[in-house]
Amino acid sequence: MTKFISQRNIRFMIKEVFDVKSLTNHDYYSKHNEKMFDMVIDEALKLAVKLMYPVLEEMDRKYPVLENGEVKVHKSVKKIMKEFGKGGWIASAFSEEHGGEQLPIIIRGVASFIFVASNYSAWAFTELSAGAAELITSFGSQELIDTYVPKMLDGKWQGTMALTEPQAGSSLSDITTIAVPDKNSRFKIKGVKIFISAGDHDGVENIIHLMLAKIENAPPGAKGISLFVVPKKRIDDQGKLILNDITTTSVYHKLGYRGTPAVEISMGEKDDCYGWLVGEENRGLIQMFQMMNEARIGVGLASCGIASAAYLAALEYTENRPQGRPVTLKDPLTKQIPIIEHADVKRMLLFQKSIVEGSLSLILQCCMYADLKKVSAGDEKEKYALLLDLLTPVAKAFPSEYGISSTSAAIQCFGGYGYCEDFPVEQYFRDVRIQAIHEGTTGIQGMDLLGRKILLKDGKAGLLFIEEVKKSIRVAREIGELEFFADQLENAMKQLEKVVDFLFNVFGEKGVDTYLSDASLFLEFYSLIVISWQWLIQGTTAKKALSENCSKKDTNFYNGKLFTINYFFRYELVKTYRLATRLMDGDDLTINMKTEYFKD
Amino acid sequence: MTKFISQRNIRFMIKEVFDVKSLTNHDYYSKHNEKMFDMVIDEALKLAVKLMYPVLEEMDRKYPVLENGEVKVHKSVKKIMKEFGKGGWIASAFSEEHGGEQLPIIIRGVASFIFVASNYSAWAFTELSAGAAELITSFGSQELIDTYVPKMLDGKWQGTMALTEPQAGSSLSDITTIAVPDKNSRFKIKGVKIFISAGDHDGVENIIHLMLAKIENAPPGAKGISLFVVPKKRIDDQGKLILNDITTTSVYHKLGYRGTPAVEISMGEKDDCYGWLVGEENRGLIQMFQMMNEARIGVGLASCGIASAAYLAALEYTENRPQGRPVTLKDPLTKQIPIIEHADVKRMLLFQKSIVEGSLSLILQCCMYADLKKVSAGDEKEKYALLLDLLTPVAKAFPSEYGISSTSAAIQCFGGYGYCEDFPVEQYFRDVRIQAIHEGTTGIQGMDLLGRKILLKDGKAGLLFIEEVKKSIRVAREIGELEFFADQLENAMKQLEKVVDFLFNVFGEKGVDTYLSDASLFLEFYSLIVISWQWLIQGTTAKKALSENCSKKDTNFYNGKLFTINYFFRYELVKTYRLATRLMDGDDLTINMKTEYFKD
Questions:
Q1: Among A3, A547, A559, B304, which one is most buried in terms of CB atoms within 10 A?
Q2: CA–CA separation, B593 vs A594, rounded Å?
């Protein structure tokens, strides 16, 4: 079987780097133990191997089509939704009160990583349902919860996020879908939504849209947006499911992520579409952001999973493909060597390994913060909440942007074969490209980090992050032989301080537009430091383990970790110099460039 | 009509930057004049608009299939080959003696740029024929020339390059296709070739493979490779075309570049396949490299053309798509602004513009060197030959690698729509991805630059390049207001000197393996300097023009150039710091990393 994740690395992450079993000391997670976590992960892998990976390619080639007003998806979607419902995977992190397993978010994260690496499109259906159901349980009335959540967690009904409209892509304050009060918390809905993932398909009995709309006469902009449940089929007075006047007007044909339909829907063409308010009026955007924050971590995870599958495919290929000889041994009568033995190929593999395992580490770190936030209170709770908030745009953007280069490097390792459909890497390259776009483009993540997150509570989140990094540096220095990395990261942190000071001055002198103009670069700059920090943590763990007695296999594994941190610091972290130079050069060319200068 | 190239920029390049009409002072080009060049370019644009761009999408969607042993391509291929033959486009740069137009290579380059930007797959058929025909005219006997070349230049017969074999991808010395002497210069051929672009199709009457094979008992390795013409149909004693025992065994399904079939062929299954030796025995690889050198410039040009089309599509979209508001004006009741007005979008457009126009400039510079080499003699000739040799791997690799990021940025400008087939950018992203692989991967280009080109004739090529750059810096300083760029480029040149010194020491102390281990990084480092040099030339030209009286339209255009050089130096050239840091850090981790460390 082709490998799409490294089990050894997962074990390393949850047992050696993050002490996940310590979570069971907290009441909320006290019913679990380490053995159960292992079982969950094993089961996830079995499901991925049996059900998801085998249809990876077919779901891409036989993509969804709109026939007679309904979207037909690959037949395996029905089976997957069913199995995910039955196995409790959709509900896994839900509280027992809401029918869930109350599994730590980090364990759920590992399971998701396995699923997504095996088949991103297939996983997306289940994840969208989980997110939508969580929104209802968080803000909806008991009636809404009882009506919708059990069926969604069961895999019978599909949940979606219906935000985007033709005239309002990233600019949600410009949505025009309208909700007119009908009776109780019921509203008549009219409007058009685009790019709704899993927004219609025949793999489930019903589709439940968590939809943003504006109540008639609501205040303009973001402050007048409310959240609704708008089902494809609503329940009539007799308790029967009847159509709710939602028409699927088209299915997009996409570069990748083709197994999951993205659809355009039109609501209320016959004036017979109803939605139910979730939570308070005009609080829709704030509520939706709960789901979107988790969804952003999910996007990072997805990128990371896809890049993992591509990396491991490239690793397998380069180990087995003989081609060429060492530069110093050109004798054509000698045997060709596997291409992994060429330094440039090793470099490309190290790049991929550093991106995949560095990103996974950050994402699991975020999950851990989310778990700790859940089980703690007071200042502790605030600390974890702030760290999670701060790192969310990084966890979304870094894996999705570097995922493009990483899967591209996987193609390069294959040479011409990588460009062909015979191997899955070309699909991974296509699948990963959506990640830098959906749930907020990279540009928007940059604005979130620089414009909101590092300013949050007078910069408290940023300071907490600095403390975390300092702590990791201290621990690394205690181990010895990691000074180089400790020093480099320390220097980068000083550089960060300088850049932030510089930008705050820009803010004061030139205003917020200029301050934010290179937010994308700042995001990359910040991300490289964040990922280096995660690599330092991994390097410290590996070094510690190596100093103890360990098997030959483990020695190889830990040496791999140490070469990869070395790679990341020497080839990637150094990019911060270029970014800092630009961020502080003071020439506001992207502000001053005029549209007409592009014309000819 | 959607724009895929900028006519104004082409005019700028050939009239203002490169004084192309000066070529007509040389005997070889004396029959031409500037007006004729303009006409050629106009005609190329008409053909591209009328014949090629309209089928861009369809050739991708209705890709070639293998039916009953023959490859069926899109019906427009036949028409395009015919028109290209009739219009003299395939033969345009051939000498009059060989039935060509004797057009300067740089004008042919501009025409190719237009074609490739309109439809890369369509252009590839014609370009492959031109390259193959040129090989025959350069090294073949008069009989071979008479038999094959006129039909190939006419568009009736397709030329190919048949190099790659299953067991020998980039390692050509390992090919095993065998040629057994038959009579005269005729040989019996047996073997398998893969990834042959346009290697079989029904858009022409015959396919002429320029094929590498080993003559029975030839020396092992590269020194035993010969070049053959192996036609799909050979001419029998009665002068009739009969099948030559070549079987098309499969057509690859590819990520992009789908309009052109890449096929696997098997020769001599019935022991009835014949080939004719081109030039001398065992000189095949050296001869083939003539075609491959030109083909490498062609790959750069292709990348650049595809990126141009993607950039201009993104420009048009961002000018017309309203979304969001300035950061300082969040009032939802105000009108949304076109997304081009957001600084981050301008940054992405400047990035694309800098890559497209910087790469085009380098490629035309190479074409100019090729022209000057053709018309000069002695030391002059050697100078241009060396500069061309030196810059060829850069002209191949930089546009193809940065073309991936550039087309990816175009997708990003479109947001979700960029990921959909409704717009052409997702196709451009797929089409461009092959360029870093075929005609030698980027890794191989890096080895060529660092391992051969900068060492050529005791480093003479490198010194000539330094002189060229110094000259451009001098001219820039004379204009004034370009000091910043002159200084930056000068600093980068000093950095280059340091890096080269360092690497030469590595060569002496640690050997060639270590010396070459980061050749890909060196290539990027060198390329950034080369492209900055080209931008300095463009900036100087624009600045000079601005100081004279010019129209408002021209003022905008030249200002666009000045903002783009500013962009390139501040955002891209600064990457050299990171690359130099790594290139000189002395830790040979990709040499020392062991294969087993990747395992778990």
A1: B304
A2: 49
